[in-house]
Structures are given as structure tokens and as C-alpha cells.
Amino acid sequence: MTCQICGAWLPVLAMFCGECGSSRTATVESRKRPDPRPNDTTIIARLPRTTVVISVPIPAEVPAPVRATAVVTAAPGAAPPAVSAAALPTRVTFVLTFSTGQVASVQGSGLIGRKPLAQPDETFDDLIRVADADRSVSKTHLEFGQHDGDFWVSDRVSGNGTVIRRPGETAEALEPGRRYVLPRDTRVEIADHSFSVA
């Protein structure tokens, strides 16, 4: 009789192969080890790349905010020329009141989350940390900003998503990456917490 694993000759009463140590009754099929991690990888069907829908028009280049006062000179004895207010960008103040008791007054752009962090090529005016011991809010959960005096928010692919409740309208779950314009008195739910826009 020969070993079914290595092919070595086996004595009549041998229980194991002297060459490979396999049992006399072992076969190639019985020696195959089961996969220890049969389902550790999930195959994700790749969808065709689509463009992100933006709900408000954004200029190609956003001008830097004007923080310095313009200096205008006039000839001696002449009245100084008028400076047009339309030339200066307008920034509206919005107050965000959180369910945690935090209150933030914002005028520009920013991020909201447990530990918000801008990407290396991004610049924001405010980084607002939400106190969340249960960690339901993502580290960088939401982005906000202004356009023509309107306040907008955009979900940053958060783990638990974002829901907005505009006054007099039904709740709407945000599509990640899309900007949603919010009127004042809108409630924004970020996981287990929320804030209102005033």
C-alpha cells in the first residue's frame, strides 16, 4: 500500500506514513485546510462616477474676504470720493444653537464635528467642536458656509448622516457632498445631536 499524500510505500500495519507523517487513511481532499477567513472581504460594485449636484452656484474662484479698510486720498480742499458699499463683500451673522448647550456665532465658512479637521488644501473661518461622549457625531460631520447672504450646509460623508427640518417642511436627509440652503429657524440633526440656525 502507498501513502495517498506523498506516494511513499507503507508497511501493512502502519498507521502513519514514515515520510510525510500523514494518516494511512488521509486523502488529498481530507488534508485541505478550511479557509480561516471565508468572508472577510466584501466586493463592492463600483458605480459609474457622477458629478456632485450643487444646489447653489459657486464661482470658480471665491474672492478672499476683505478685512482691511480702504484708504482713499483726495486733493487738498476737495471732498473725499465716495466708496461704494457694493464693492465690499457682505457677511451675514448666523447663530447656531446646539442641543448640547453650545452657541456659536458664525459669519463665514466652517466645519462641525467631534474633532473637525480641514484637508490640507482647505481653509475655513470656524471649526466647531460638538461635545459628544457617545461618539455618534463624526469627527468632521458637516461643512457650512454662505453664498449671497444665505446659509448652507453639506454633509461630509458622515457615519450617521444629517437630517434638516426647514420650517413648515418635512424632514430631509442630506445627500453627502451636496449643499443645501437653509432659512433661519431650520433645525439640523447630526446623529444624536442637533442645532438650530438663527
Automatic annotation (TrEMBL):
InterPro entries linked: FHA_dom, SMAD_FHA_dom_sf
Q: Which organism is it from?
A: Cryobacterium suzukii
Q: Keyword 4Fe-4S: yes or no?
A: no
Entry's Pfam families? FHA
What is this protein's record name? FHA domain-containing protein
High-level lineage: Bacteria, Bacillati, Actinomycetota, Actinomycetes, Micrococcales
Q: Which residues form the FHA domain?
A: 110-164
Q: Which UniProt keywords apply?
A: Phosphoprotein
